[in-house]
Amino acid sequence: MSYHRYDAVIVGAGGAGLMTAIQMAGKANIAVVSKLYPPRSHTGAAQGGVAAALGNTEEDHWEWHMFDTVKGGDYLVDQDAAAILARDAIDAVYELEHMGLPFNRTPDGLIDQRRFGGHSRNFGEGPVRRACYAADRTGHMIIQTLYQQGIKHNVTFRDEEFLLDVLFSENGECCGVVTRELTTGEYHVLHAKAVMIATGGFGRMFKITSNAMAGTGDGVAIPYRRGVPVMDMEFYQFHPTGLYKLGILLSEAARGEGGILRNNEGEAFAARYAPTMKDLAPRDMVSRFIYEEVKAGRGIDGKDYVHLDLTHLPPEVIDAKLPDITDFARTYLNVEPKTQPVPIQPTAHYAMGGLPTDLDGRVLADASGNVIPGLYAAGESACVSVHGANRLGTNSLVDLIVFGRRAGRHMLKFVDDTSHPTMPANPDRPAREEIDEIVARPSGENAAEIRERLQDVMMDKVSVVRNAGGMNEALAEVESLRNAYKNVAIQDKGNIFNTDLTEALECGYMLDLAEALIIGALAREESRGAHYRTDFEKRDDSNWLAHTVVKMKGDKLELTKKPVTVTTFEPKERVY
Amino acid sequence: MEVTLRIKRYNPEIDEKPTFREYQVTVEKTDRVLDALNMVKWHDDGTLTYRRSCAHGICGSDAMRINGRNRLACKVLMGEVGDRVTIEPLLGFSVIKDLVVDMDSFFAGYRSIKPYLITHDENPATERRQTPAERERFDDTTKCILCASCTTACPITWTNEEFVGPAAIVNAHRFIYDSRDQGGRERLRILNQRSGVWRCRTVFNCTDACPRDIEITKAIEEVKRSLLTETY
Ligand SMILES: Cc1cc2nc3c(=O)[nH]c(=O)nc-3n(C[C@H](O)[C@H](O)[C@H](O)COP(=O)(O)OP(=O)(O)OC[C@H]3O[C@@H](n4cnc5c(N)ncnc54)[C@H](O)[C@@H]3O)c2cc1C
Ligand code: SF4
Ligand code: FES
Q1: B2-101 belongs to which homologous superfamily?
Q2: Is residue A163 a contact partner of residue A179, using CB atoms and an 8 Å limit?
């Protein structure tokens, strides 16, 4: 084991982690830990754009953006956070441009903008061009640009190092992390005054997902096991347009540029459900429209998918603005989007829930808003909450840069004002013991099979449409899988690049998060945003205009409610 | 379909030298080579080791030699590779384990060309202006995902450790031709050194290998021309 001392450790080198790091680089002694090389983080997969009311191509205002965010989130959004998101987005996008991000441009040389689901002009009158983009590889450009800035500012990157544990002092201050270097198997204790968790989402607990194989929720599950709460886990977004069977995302930009969803009769069915926004209604709704069409027998060939039709778009628009995603259709389904409709189905995409934080990224200890000193979170692993019950497209990338930046600035002040808390004795022992036990077990359960069963049951019972019966079955299955996991065994017993081991650990993390997700979903007896229950079809503001906070207490889970911050927009029915 | 995967295996903790091992798997024609590797790892031999993440060709993790060509395992379908597939690690880098190679020198090459926007002027209050044509000028080289397929397909890099390699030049190109950048001279000076662009013999292996269809040889030629004509 080797010991290192930093002012702050940032775990995760996606958009959120890197944005945090850039604020602190050169001003504090920091390290960025990532199990992947930074540019391989899943932020690089983001396609469509990043929202900011620049008003470059038509009138727009941050207040409109804030309203859309709140309404899109089915009023579960904390409105003080949404105001910051919408207001700071503008400046943050300019900052990205200054760092060199190659946005597409208008004829006048400004950042070009396009339409996206749920983004409207004048509080819902019709679609507005708000998404700043770089073709359909906006995330790729963000991750590249931020990584480049990290290099420029000499950030210490601890690449291919895997987070195993988060450390707390006797007084409950966060005081560092335990990691393992993949190439050697060496353990490291990183002693720090502040730790940022920016490890991204956990879509891999579902069978059909747009998320990378690394999207397993490690950084949420690890502190959760140590008693840190998770919030709003039941809100998991299914994006309507994943490639059939593969889940690979076809960005909403396809519909923003004019693409239309069609059923087996060729009907543009979204207009029937959402007369104003049509195909650009928010994702939770469009995913449900598809579900309804399939249920009514209007899926293609009677199967569980529909078509995304781009054939009427000018071919040069497809080549210039949607090159990558149309290439996915060609590569993986052998479909030419210029002449053929693309088979699509909803795909598990985004975790609205995660580690609860305040407006500066400080992780909350409980539903009353007390903070855990030294522990921060940002990006998809955090829940501020700006996405509420359903995130709008292009609002995650803004979240990363706006709240990554705020957290970084706050951490900088915090590490300046505090000294290193005392670490627990033998800080790496629990992590080592967990691993030694798995490695030593001569035979037992196969993690891959446990994971496949988890993915099946989550997709089947806890996805676009839910009810108590199905979720109770899912909970029972998850409990039995968690039991099986206690006996998990691996074949690779070595120290060097042991991905048999890391995959097993990741499976364990997802099992715990899946349990919290189902507990939240069962408790919430209403339908709101991405959480749609056939046994409680209506939104219930009198009981459930509240966040759910779930905590592990020994073997038990404790669920409490946290009030939603409403400042400007009173909850209304969501019509598009 | 039934296929045989012939995979070059090497675990430095056990093996003295790399050896090929064969695995039989049943796949669909539309499965990715990565799916076939996963089938082996998850249901047969958990010790098989490779990098992967996005599984759709955008993160650059899983470049490897498939039937002798550098490809991303997640971007090649089984239907394209026949029923006997040879899979090896990238050439030119030392092997850490099985299909995982040491990328340190690759990233060092990338860093060496100052891969970030260099400007000397104050930032304006809003965005800097750039016309669509100026933006288009360097579009091709912004697509790089740092997979190292090009660099490890290049015969010059196999024999000359100093050569920065095509990927680094691609990323220099991305900035040299960005109308907002003011670091062109610095970068060109670096690329003009012995280890720089002049090593390139225009073999075109890199362009053939690039999973992002970047015209690498063209980008390198443009950088060479800039050095000769000093148009920067
Ligand atoms: C296909 C796709 C398209 C999208 N398109 C858009 C879009 O157009 N607009 C938009 O706003 N949003 C979009 N999103 C959502 C958005 O991209 C993500 O929510 C966001 O990028 C997450 O960023 P992050 O920084 O939180 O995490 P990530 O980018 O996922 O990074 C996580 C980091 O944590 C590290 N990590 C994880 N576990 C460990 C561990 N155990 N030890 C060490 N390190 C670890 C990883 O190595 C990685 O560096 C899209 C998402 C997907 C999947
Ligand atoms: S230029 Fe192409 S082959 Fe080379 S590293 Fe970049 S993406 Fe890979
Ligand atoms: S796994 Fe990301 S490029 Fe293949």
Answers
A1: Beta-grasp domain (3.10.20.30)
A2: yes
